Amino acid sequence: MGNPSIAPEGEQGAKPLVGFLGMATGIFEFLGRTGRARPVEIAGGLGLDLGYVGAFCEAGFAFGYLEEEGGCFSLAGEIDRASFLATAIEAVFAPSVTLRLLPLFRTGHRPGPGALIDPEIRPWFGEFLEGKHRSLFEEAIFPGLPLLGELAERDGLILDLGCGNGWLLRCLLSRFPRWRGIGIDREASRIAQGRAAARSAGLSDRLELIEGDLLSWHGREAADLVVVSRVLHHLWPEREGFFAHLDRIVRRDGTLFLWEPCWPQRLESLREPSRRNLAFQNLHEYAQGARLLSSEELVRGVEEAGWKTSTRWFAGGAEMVVLGKRKEAGWGAG
């Protein structure tokens, strides 16, 4: 007889994996459109193998994703795409990264940014990051930073460097009705997803997403607010060039918004539940040629580049936002 104490954990671990397959194969989307269908109809409609589709439908039924009646399957209920996708990708992302890390321990190779993301996960990664971080921004960061509320009363231009699918720009523009936004990212697929999301949100007239290099791109006008979200630790070895670039693209009275994971000063702090995941993240950041930054290191680097800073911590200290204004402008200007 098996050990019953491990069964619930094993079942819970398998459920999001089944969910990921339903999402990645398009089966959930297909059933959302058609209402109900037999496995042969699903397979034919999506160009999938009938045997695999049949086995998946049984698994989807077992874990409560699907209902069955008369050989037809339907979704068991509405799926909150953002939260569901974040959970499903999380379930496959960490094991996938772990398997890619293992040979690197022997070779010492550091393959660089994005190299650990499985090609089957990459198309979903922008939405995954949105689902993982959007609620923290909406529920804690935005209301916890009075300056953002003050900026919302003005008009201006936001520039998001490393914008991904543009989710943070969309959040800001929905709260800044008189602002425009420009996002720069090197991933064409995420830019395309972001443009589609902007159209759906009715923001296309105020939001422009551009495929490009965030260290070299510059537009016709300087930005009032520059957002760099969870990207700066990748640029830290090149920070002199990065801050020199900011001097060219930020208005003299403009504001920096730098959102980063916050590496603790003390090793013991990594055992705090809110910070444990930072340790695994830092491990795969190392493989990408980066490392997470402490608040002290980030603030020191920003201030050495000529900016006055204000720092706030969120998520039990695991996340930080550093706001910056040029020292000659100060917080009372602009």
From TrEMBL:
Q: Does the keyword Repeat apply?
A: no
Taxonomically, the superkingdom here is: Bacteria
Reported EC number(s) for this entry are: 2.1.1.144
Keyword Methyltransferase recorded: yes
GO terms classed as biological process: methylation
Q: Name one GO molecular function term.
A: trans-aconitate 2-methyltransferase activity
**What keywords are assigned to this protein?**
Methyltransferase, Transferase
Recorded hits in Pfam families, A to Z, give: Methyltransf_25
Name by which UniProt lists this protein: Trans-aconitate 2-methyltransferase
Q: Identify the species of origin.
A: Methylacidimicrobium cyclopophantes
